[in-house]
């Protein structure tokens, strides 16, 4: 045995001291999200022997990072305009609570598609790709990003051919609802894409953005949480567990606090 | 084995021999390591995933992140690293589970013990002698012909001290229902006799959970608080480790506890174990094979690969296989230890009697002007339950099925992505959807796994190796063949209807029942209680392990975990998994170390 840092006993063999002294640039979260990639590219974050005391490395578990405000990262300008219009149909604005567009739901979907989710990172994507039964789950070779791209392109063409060259975002409210109801029922078909599946996914992703922490781009200023009465990222209700049928009085907090506390909080 | 591509090509580097090598460092690995180091043995535990703990991985500043931990599965194994193939029927082509659905395998130190709900259920005495019990009560013709349930080879009374030990390790909060044979008011009157009360009183119950208890009592049932590993008060366990009271934050399942309030290997064992000089662990190290000598009857150690692709051999005198249930079975198949099960000839043992759980739920929508449940106030194992319809607690004769489960308002919180439900008939989007979400969030009862039914074994439900799909080492993926049989579908319909009656009696305006129906769907989450495939029993031709969890063919290999369950009961499995680990550890300490060899004659 040899003495390691902080009195840790590092045993002979594959202990490789550097492992627990990982530079914060190679963070656990990236490692977890891309295990396979990192397996093929030697990384300083690897196996370590743990003995004597519990290991602790600052930020080893990787704190979350807030999305960057600014231009679309995945969508083209036209795609983004369409998605914002869809978001406002799925979650229409009302006098008390903003709609999906103002709440940032399209921004949420954009950042998700630009990130690991869009590319199926971490999922099993080895061939062969065979269509199975519904109970066997999706067997798609391409990820959500490519599916959105194809469906949005086809959706744009379908709208323009139906409404004399008008894009979805330029239609009247009644026309937009009619198109989306058509997608939902299967009456409006998309060329080269499954319109019904696309709209179901879009509803799910837009609503997810509405209810996720504002740090991901949607639910701006916690509008959705305020609407439903969810207090957010709190962790202690000991004083409230026995107070039955009383409304919890405090407004929500997000992981980055509250909008009025920080200039950039969303 | 083709390890090209990800593993460096030279022969494994051989490490100095240990007394014991433990494969998988979750609950059972940690329990066994602590027990065997107490015997003075030199023990190493190997864990595929990373080290994890509250201060770095789930601190209170950002642990309440539903998107990251629940939706994107932050703390779970990536299917990319290892997954399974799945089909309903033997004549179908199995296809890979490309993203998790019906269950979500753990990864990392602490295993599923990090992100579980901490429900602390004991199985019923009759569950351990199930085949004998049901045959005696209903006759052998009552059971479906292809049902392959078995007795465990162990009794409740034998396991009781080990249940007790784990309950006290964890500080479990609950109300005793049967204290040394005496039925206690307020507890579960159907539970087996326990030798002492729970170490801490039951958790406080939020409004809707209390209402469920009241409605159930008025209907003539005997409701009781769910036994919980989220503690009602501060507790110091027998190893001297301290836990704080649960704060009811509502982030247990899928999440790590930042408050040191939920029982996990990290809060109840590891800080004690790690100080022992005869113990060490390695993270990010995946065991790819259990090695045996030429006779095939003696394990010599394991081969593992670390995340840099380096391959190592760890020799040891005793091998403890304590990974997640499915990975135990997979490693036995890849190591060619034990005869693989063949459903056609009904021979072989590895892969036999695979089971899951039969889960359904009923959501209740209440008048928001009269009811405010503050549903975000909860814990993972909170709830009021009844056990009248579990196991064989009721006469199955008139109903034409066997098995059952507890039902209860066990809502674990109201994270808003998953908990913004609307009454039946509401559009899925638009203004009507939005106002329904606004009006219902605080006044909806969403019990999640409210109907927690058993899953019994069948000849055509099993695990094997897939002929087509490979993992990143080039090894075949394990193949799951699983469907719901009529017995479980009938059981679920019966229980779900009974459950809905209670939700209705709570005062719900609308009740939405969600039955579990065939075919078994790999995309629909039920629980991560997948069991069997390397089961314990009394006959080496139908079980992989003897009653001490010792492998019949390789006596210096013990296999812990729910893979040993001959079939699954209507309860969460962890307490039984942990009790069996203590039971096996006692057999090793008291018997095996004195005379290494088969503890039972075949």
UniProtKB/TrEMBL annotation, chain A:
Keywords: Oxidoreductase. Residues 1-22 are annotated as: Disordered. It is an enzyme of class 1 (oxidoreductase). GO terms for molecular function: gluconate 2-dehydrogenase (acceptor) activity. Its EC number is 1.1.99.3. It comes from the Bacteria. The keyword Oxidoreductase applies. This is Gluconate 2-dehydrogenase gamma chain.
From TrEMBL, chain B:
Transmembrane segments: none annotated. InterPro entries: FAD/NAD-bd_sf (IPR036188), GMC_OxRdtase_N (IPR000172), GMC_OxRtase_C (IPR007867). It comes from the Bacteria. The keyword Acetylation does not apply. Residues 470-581 form the Glucose-methanol-choline oxidoreductase C-terminal domain. It holds the Pfam family GMC_oxred_N. Its EC number is 1.1.99.3. Residues 243-356 form the Glucose-methanol-choline oxidoreductase N-terminal domain. This is Gluconate 2-dehydrogenase alpha chain.
């Amino acid at each position: 045995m040899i003495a390691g840092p902080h009195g840790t006993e590092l045993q002979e063999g594959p202990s490789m001291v550097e492992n627990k002294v990982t530079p914060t640039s190679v963070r656990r979260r990236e490692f977890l999200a891309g295990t396979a990639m990192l397996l093929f590219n030697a990384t300083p974050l690897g196996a370590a022997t743990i003995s004597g005391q519990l290991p602790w490395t600052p930020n080893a578990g990787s704190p979350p990072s807030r999305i960057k405000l600014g231009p679309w990262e995945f969508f083209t300008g036209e795609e983004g305009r369409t998605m914002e219009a869809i978001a406002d149909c799925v979650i229409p604005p009302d006098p008390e609570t903003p709609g999906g567009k103002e709440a940032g739901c399209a921004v949420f979907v954009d950042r998700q598609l630009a990130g690991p989710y869009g590319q199926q990172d971490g999922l099993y994507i080895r061939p062969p790709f065979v269509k199975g039964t519904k109970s066997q789950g999706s067997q798609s070779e391409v990820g959500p990003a490519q599916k959105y791209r194809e469906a949005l392109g086809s959706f744009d063409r379908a709208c323009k051919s139906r409404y004399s060259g008008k894009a979805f975002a330029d239609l009247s409210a009644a026309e937009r609802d009619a198109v989306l109801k058509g997608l939902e029922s299967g009456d409006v078909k998309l060329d080269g894409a499954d319109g019904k599946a696309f709209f179901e996914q879009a509803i799910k992703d837009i609503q997810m953005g509405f209810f996720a922490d504002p740090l991901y781009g949607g639910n701006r200023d916690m509008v959705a949480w305020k609407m439903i009465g969810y207090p957010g990222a709190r962790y202690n209700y000991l004083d409230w567990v026995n107070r039955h049928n009383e409304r919890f009085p405090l407004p929500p907090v997000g992981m980055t606090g509250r909008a009025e506390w920080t200039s950039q909080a969303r | 084995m083709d390890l090209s591509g990800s593993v460096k090509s030279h022969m494994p580097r051989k490490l100095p021999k240990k007394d014991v090598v433990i494969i998988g460092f979750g609950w059972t690995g940690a329990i066994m390591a602590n027990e065997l180091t107490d015997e003075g043995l030199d023990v190493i535990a190997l864990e595929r995933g990373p080290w994890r703990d509250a201060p770095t991985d789930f601190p209170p500043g950002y642990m309440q992140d539903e998107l990251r931990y629940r939706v994107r599965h932050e703390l779970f194994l990536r299917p990319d690293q290892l997954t399974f193939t799945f089909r309903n029927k033997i004549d179908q082509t199995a296809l890979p589970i490309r993203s998790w659905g019906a269950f979500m395998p753990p990864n990392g130190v602490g295993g599923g013990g990090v992100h579980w709900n901490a429900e602390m259920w004991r199985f019923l005495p009759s569950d351990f002698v199930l085949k004998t019990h049901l045959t005696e009560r209903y006759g052998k013709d009552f059971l479906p012909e292809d049902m392959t349930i078995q007795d465990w080879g162990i009794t409740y009374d034998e396991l009781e001290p080990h249940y007790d030990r784990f309950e006290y390790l964890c500080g479990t909060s609950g109300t005793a229902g049967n204290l040394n044979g005496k039925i206690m008011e307020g507890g579960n009157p159907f539970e087996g006799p326990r030798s002492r009360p729970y170490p801490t009183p039951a958790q406080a119950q939020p409004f809707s959970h209390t209402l469920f208890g009241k409605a159930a009592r008025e209907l003539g049932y005997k409701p009781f608080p769910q036994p919980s590993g989220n503690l009602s008060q501060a507790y110091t366990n027998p190893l001297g480790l301290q836990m704080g009271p649960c704060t009811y934050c509502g982030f247990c399942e899928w999440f790590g506890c930042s408050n040191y309030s939920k029982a996990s290997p990290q809060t109840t064992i590891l800080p004690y174990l790690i100080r022992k000089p005869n113990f060490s662990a390695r993270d990010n190290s995946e065991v790819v094979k259990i090695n045996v000598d030429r006779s095939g009857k003696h394990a010599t150690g394991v081969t593992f690969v670390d995340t840099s692709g380096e391959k190592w051999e760890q020799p040891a005198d005793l091998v403890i296989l304590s990974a997640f249930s499915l990975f135990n079975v997979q490693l036995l198949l890849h190591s060619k230890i034990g005869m693989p099960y063949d459903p056609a000839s009904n021979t072989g043992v590895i892969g036999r009697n695979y089971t899951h759980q039969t889960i359904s739920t009923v959501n209740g929508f209440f008048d928001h002007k009269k009811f405010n449940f503050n549903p975000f106030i909860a814990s993972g194992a909170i709830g009021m339950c009844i056990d009248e319809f579990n196991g064989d607690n009721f006469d199955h004769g008139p109903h034409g099925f066997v098995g059952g489960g507890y039902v209860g308002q066990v809502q674990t919180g109201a994270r808003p992505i998953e908990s913004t439900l609307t009454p039946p008939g509401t559009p899925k989007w638009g203004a009507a959807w939005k106002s329904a979400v606004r009006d219902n969030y605080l006044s909806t009862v969403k019990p999640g796994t409210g109907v927690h039914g058993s899953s019994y074994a069948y000849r055509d439900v099993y695990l094997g190796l897939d002929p087509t799909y490979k993992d990143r080492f080039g090894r075949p993926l394990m193949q799951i063949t699983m469907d719901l049989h009529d017995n479980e579908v009938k059981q679920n319909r019966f229980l779900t209807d009974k459950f809905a009656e209670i939700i209705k009696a709570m005062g719900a305006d609308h009740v939405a029942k969600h039955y579990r129906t065939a075919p078994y769907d790999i995309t629909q989450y039920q629980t991560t209680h997948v069991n069997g495939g390397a089961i314990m029993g009394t006959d080496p031709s139908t079980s992989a392990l003897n009653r001490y969890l010792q492998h019949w063919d390789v006596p210096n290999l013990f296999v812990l975990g729910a893979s040993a369950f001959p079939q699954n009961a209507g309860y969460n499995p962890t307490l039984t998994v942990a009790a069996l680990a203590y039971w096996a550890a006692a057999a090793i300490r008291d018997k095996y170390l004195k005379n290494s060899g088969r503890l039972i004659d075949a």
